[in-house]
Amino acid sequence: MKKKGLSALFQPVELTQGECWKTILAFSFPIIVSYLLQQVYTISDAAIVGQTLTAQEVAGVNDTSSLIFIFLQFAFGVSAGFCVVTSCNVGAHNPAGVRRSLTTQIVLSAALTVILTVLALLLLDPMLAWINVTPDNGEVYRAAYTYCAIIFAGIGAQLFYNFICSFLRSMGDSATPLAFLLFSTILNVGLDLLFILSFHWGVAGVAIATAIAYTVSATTLFVHLLKTDSVVRVTPRDLGLDPVALKRIVKIGLPAGIQSAVFAVANIIIQSAINSLGTEVMAASSAAMSLEYVCYNLLNSFSQACTTFVGQNHGARQIDRCTKTLKVCLIEGGIVALTTIVIIVGLGREILALFNSDPNIVSIGYIRVCSIFPAYAFSMFYENMSGYLRGFGISLMPALITMICVCGIRFYWVF
To answer: Which of 118, 168, 212, 281 lies at 20 to 30 Å from 1 by C-alpha?
Structure first.
């Protein structure tokens, strides 16, 4: 019996049936809103931090985002392997395969969480040195070290949360992750205000708020999986590694994870070069980068949708629908890309002024906006085509092309 009312919004979407353009749009919309919500939180968090902490503490927090991004991006890339294996089983109407995929993902993600947490804490000092944040920087270094140490200690919750969200999306459910993200964002902002304004915990308060918010969200989302009445319901005794699922997940997810991590490292190298140009350029670049994240994440929504759609339809042996999916994602992604580029380039100065009212910083930031944003049209193409190939389980080639052509050019340009 088909569920009605609010609960119907949180049921998986059937991606192997219906008109492609409508289904893709319906599936992508919650992902787009999720990314926008994350940016709203980031901007709100930056506003709270900027209004309550010292300039040195703000610099310490802002400068470390690229370091945290390395580990998060690796996990996001690996989750592509989760997505493809699960979505293929969903399309093939293989509930046993879906359950084996889920239990393997839970065990593997738990292991990855421990490994990445330990690595992050051990490499904290060397990574801060990469971005020219050393003990000689005094308060900036103390703020950066405190913030990173707490975030990395609790990063497992963020990783596990995103692994579960990836699984739900591969099932065709993009609304449930959005609902939990909304809860997490509200909780995070509330804890920020409590820990900074009431408890006066400073930088540590910002990091603790993020760690608690993601821990609560990951726990409740995992309980949701344990309690659900659908095929994905698991019990602790079900947990284990399925060799076939594990092999496919690693084959698809590892290249994607390394690609994402290398991309983040390239950003660090560029950030290090930017930091050598002075505080005005650093502030301008940081503001412009916030806008870039909005654009990139909007385009990446269609890439994720493309991977999930192709995975399910490949499992259902509907190859014609897979090809149509790519065309639709390119068209819809192109419309979103063009609209975003026109708005941000057209209103760039006004938007940048919301981050910093200094005319010099706004002008420098606008140079970056005008130089980079038109290129996001090309980013849309390669992200969607990469997502399309991953849906078929082809992950190594897109990863190599991105690392050599995108990251390699960045390294060459800087050095």
So the answer is: 168
Rounded CA gap, 307 and 393, in Å? 9
Q: Is it the case that residue 126 has pLDDT exceeding 70?
A: yes
Residues in the chain: 415
Distance, CA of 197 to CA of 53 (rounded, Å)? 10
Q: Sign of torsion, CA 398 403 407 412? A: negative
Looking at residue 315, its amino acid is G
- Residue 171: phi and psi, rounded to 5, are -80, -10
Question: DSSP string covering 99-154, please?
Answer: HHHHHHHHHHHHHHHHHHHHHHHHTHHHHHHHTT--GGGTHHHHHHHHHHHHHHHT
- In DSSP notation, 156-219 reads HHHHHHHHHHHHHHHTT--HHHHHHHHHHHHHHHHHHHIIIIIS--HHHHHHHHHHHHHHHHHH
The owner of tokens 């990836």 is 166
Q: d(Cα 106, Cα 235) in Å, to the nearest integer?
A: 11
Q: Phi-psi category of 318—alpha, beta or left, where left has phi over 0 and alpha has psi -120 to 50?
A: beta
- State how far Cα 361 lies from the chain centre: 28
Which one, of 150, 78, 86, 159, lies nearest residue 116 by Cα? 159
Q: What is the pTM of this model?
A: 0.84
Structural tokens at position 265: 């490292």
pLDDT tens readout for residues 215-265? 998 898 888 877 766 666 666 777 788 888 888 888 888 888 888 888 888
406 DSSP assignment: I
Task: In whole angstroms, give the CA distance from residue 158 to residue 210.
Answer: 9
pLDDT in tens, 376-412: 888 888 889 999 999 999 988 888 888 888 778 877 7
